[in-house]
């Protein structure tokens, strides 16, 4: 498949999300990105949830993750999850004031008629928010300190963890996520979830997630998911993952 065809597929995927994003947000460093739209004043939020800034330039993770995918992924896909989540909870006093984490942890208490929308779009919002903040070019190449020891205790070695995580990412059939997560005691676990399901709904704290929806990698890697997974390991911010583990262990 050539690049033009791949672009069409990515664009189609964004366009067929249930609600086309109405808001394009100015991002930190966006001016340096090759395809950045002119920054405009962000419109007033249309609900309680907002698209977080990416926090770095679209091309910050090159050559591992390409700028065009990062821009489409954040500005179109993630924005659509936020907009659809806001639509789902609009006017619903039962969940007014709930955080995104509350919605996903207590999904069974969300009114049944909006539960699927909250599961899909709320999960999409939280998963992507976690994803962007897990990435950093030039971060530590591997976990260190007590967190590295915890990984080794559970998986035999850091390499043992990576092997299990990569296998989970490869085994996702269709769209979903591979995760490193922790339970309330800090015990580590590798798992995958379908679609936009969150480990929070299973009572787990997500520490590191890899988006293996095709929209996350098809433009650069096409069907070569394994290469995308390998590239991911070059941009993980292990300091952030270790901080999340410490927070999960403290409860
Ligand atoms: Fe995604």
TrEMBL record:
Residues 143-244 form the Manganese/iron superoxide dismutase C-terminal domain. GO terms for cellular component: cytoplasm. Coiled coil: none annotated. Residues 49-135 form the Manganese/iron superoxide dismutase N-terminal domain. It catalyses: 2 superoxide + 2 H(+) = H2O2 + O2. Belongs to the iron/manganese superoxide dismutase family. PANTHER family: 37S RIBOSOMAL PROTEIN S26, MITOCHONDRIAL, SMALL RIBOSOMAL SUBUNIT PROTEIN MS42. Destroys radicals which are normally produced within the cells and which are toxic to biological systems. This is Superoxide dismutase. It comes from Eiseniibacteriota bacterium. The lineage of its organism: Bacteria, Candidatus Eiseniibacteriota.
């Amino acid at each position: 498949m050539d690049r033009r065809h791949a672009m069409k597929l990515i664009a189609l995927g964004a366009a067929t999300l249930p609600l086309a994003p109405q808001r394009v947000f100015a991002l930190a460093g966006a001016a340096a990105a090759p395809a950045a739209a002119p920054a405009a004043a962000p419109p007033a939020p249309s609900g309680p949830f907002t698209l977080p800034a990416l926090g770095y330039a679209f091309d910050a993770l090159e050559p591992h993750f390409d700028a065009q995918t990062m821009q489409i992924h954040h500005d179109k896909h993630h924005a659509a999850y936020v907009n659809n989540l806001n639509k789902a909870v609009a006017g619903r006093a039962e969940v007014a004031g709930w955080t995104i984490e509350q919605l996903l942890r207590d999904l069974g208490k969300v009114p049944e008629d909006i539960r699927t929308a909250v599961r899909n779009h709320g999960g999409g919002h939280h998963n992507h928010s976690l994803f962007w903040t897990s990435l950093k070019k030039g971060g530590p190449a591997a976990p260190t300190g007590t967190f590295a020891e915890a990984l080794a205790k559970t998986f035999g070695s850091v390499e043992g963890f990576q092997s299990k995580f990569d296998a989970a990412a490869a085994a996702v059939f269709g769209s979903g996520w591979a995760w490193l997560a922790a339970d309330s005691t800090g015990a580590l676990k590798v798992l995958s979830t379908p679609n936009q399901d969150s480990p929070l709904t299973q009572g787990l704290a997500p520490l590191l997630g890899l988006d293996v929806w095709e929209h996350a990698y098809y433009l650069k890697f096409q069907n070569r998911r394994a290469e995308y997974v390998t590239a991911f390991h070059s941009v993980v911010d292990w300091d952030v993952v270790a901080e999340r583990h410490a927070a999960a262990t403290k409860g």
